[in-house]
Queue: 3 jobs
Job 1
Amino acid sequence: MRWIYGVFALVMMGTAWSAQGQSFCFALAETYYEQVYCQLQARAQTKGLPSFHEFRKNNQTIQAALLRRPAERNGIKLPAVAKPVVASTDTETTSFSVKSEIATGRRSKTSARTEPVDDYLRNTSLIADTSGCLYRTHYIECNGIGYQLTGNKTNTRLRSGVLDTENKMALPEQVDLPLQPYLEQAYGQYIHKMCEIGLCGVTMTYGKFAYLYQDVRAKGLNFSQRFETMFSFLKKDKASMGVSETLPDTAGLGIEQCALLRDRYFVCEMAGRNLVYVRQ
């Protein structure tokens, strides 16, 4: 009897872990097609599709082919995969490139629709001077100000109303700002809103955020609107699902892997994972 109970407990634990992982699909999505998969999953429309883990192993051409019919049935826009284009000497028709924008500080005047995504962006990091800052595992002190490592929070610890429909991600639109300052501003807002709903522990690194920006732009879509869609699904999931408040292992992390963001957060990247320290 004890053996049967033990097996049952293991099965239930595995089911709970799987449900939580599936529920927060949007927190794991790093590309537009992965976000579309999560939208379909939220609507229980992934019959015939591989698991999210298996889906993301495919290149974007295969992902688009897998998503096409269920996306059409659910009224979700699915732009074609961007193809490489021949560079033009005409500045009015040269295709969009985040890499060149970051390097030059200038914003392209053209649509991003035909530009393939540059994978180098995944490894882009925030630039920051952390000299004089002290790192102490779960705590960073800089210029006399302390920042505490923060993970996910249960709903009982959240401010009232943060999971309501009225609470928006509200990423700024890129109007006159050069790309890098814009991305840093938008990323700061993203981190703030994710922590606000108790999901500090599942945020994207800055590099993944920048990569998703280009991927969405390359498909001719609005970046801010895509994040509103993501945020609305995450709030619904968070309202009904529990989270673990266990802090991540920080072994091997150093202050050189961290950057100050909006004077309120230190974001640190370790092995592709994002760690957020919140000002106290």
Job 2
Amino acid sequence: MKVGAEVRRRGNREDGRQVMARLKKTVVMVGMMGAGKTAVGSALARGLNVPFLDSDEEIERAANRTIAEIFARDGEPFFREKESQVLARLLRGSPCVLSTGGGAFMAEGNRRMIREQGVSVWLKADLDVLWHRVRHKATRPLLRTPNPRETLRALLEARDPVYAQADLAVESGEGTVEQMAVRVREALATRPDVLETDE
């Protein structure tokens, strides 16, 4: 696995002209809630001039309910089933940048689909960064517990070894959203089967 921050930056030719890039596979952003998958993925998609999709938004649109409402009414197993169905549909589409929910990559079937049809990018963040980003948000059903920070810590501990199976990893900590998107693009540039440039 290559960490994006360690990849040599690519963007402009020596003559100053912009390097053109063509996305050949869907880029699937994975990682914990609060890692920045939606913000960074959206910025990456703009830079690559491809669509940006959010699997949670697609699930909400299909169910006509919010994620929190789905969890409350139908439970997590039902949500995970719908999540896999939506993920399969989105992966069959044209190459894009796809943000997934924090638990999507936990299912082996989802990891297999992503591996076969796209490339996974893990936005890696530590507990303090994640907690700072999610502590004031009421839209995280898994954190509706007496001690949400401890719940987040336990989720991070359980999920990190699975996220580590992603094709690429990029640190999601310091820097702006745009800077993190550049790091992801640098990581993708190491995979010519995913990102083709005119260099």
Job 3
Amino acid sequence: MSWVESASEGGRPLGMVSNWKSDNPWTALVPLDLSSLHLFQADFDRLLLLDLRVCVAPNIEFLRESGVPNENIMVLLKYRPRAFMTSNDRFREIVKEVEEMGFNPLRKKVVIAVHAFRAMSKSTWEKKVEVYKKWGLSEDEILVALGKHPGCMMVSEHKIKEVMNFFVNKMGWESSFVPRNSLLVSLSLENRIVPRCAVYQVLLSKGLINSNNQSF
């Protein structure tokens, strides 16, 4: 009986493996500290059902060959294990696309970008790019936004439109403000952005800050 099968007996989830020892296939294939990995994501259970040598190990190894440190690979395994549920050919294409966009393999943003590319189809990606372009952003500015915070491409097209509309039409700021502060696209408009901007406008009206101070 395999370690996966034995872990599933007794009604426990496959991910809740108490006997996480050096003889399990993960330790042999993936020399990372995986001792607590099963605690983080239910999706990890599905990963355990795959043929690790065929489906997972080549993807992890390709990240290493591309210069991604083990600790950053671990981030992807912990929080977005589905990224590895991708065919080896497609996974390589995604990593190469991310590299061509100028992401530094030594930084965690590269694995966030890999997840972002993997999480949507190419047509969906292109539609989101077009939404940004309709607000006057160039491809270079969109790349800047992506480099600062890849999550700016993981929200819906509607959310992108809402955020751009708020900053450009309601705050009266240049559209280029958004790619320079692309983390804002991922924040809640109602709970985070609008209240902060309300405080900003009060401070501005009282002369406590100047209009060039657009920090959050």
